[in-house]
Amino acid sequence: QVQLVESGGGLVQPGGSLRLSCVASGSILSMNHMGWYRQAPGKERESVALITKGGVTDYAGAVKGRFTISRDNAKNTMYLQMNSLKPEDTAVYYCYGVAGSRYWGQGTQVTVSS
For residue 26, is pLDDT > 90? Predict the structure, then answer.
């Protein structure tokens, strides 16, 4: 059983930056791919970014060019660097990993507001 724990959320002004971290209880090398979803109030959960075992990345159109996903296999950690944040980025951000089953973190709140 893999456990994922997110951190790094918070309140930031529009145009600011945050870096989210997702630490796995085991080796992330076992993950075929990992990524981030987000869910804003009253909206469905949506995919934000993913990174494969081989390091290939993909992004939702709304965040492309502003967000960067990465992974540090030695630290069993995945990151989401978020720059040029907008109020519409406000949501709970969840990390996940796929290793046979899909595992989810508990979520971290990101609020973009002046």
Answer: no
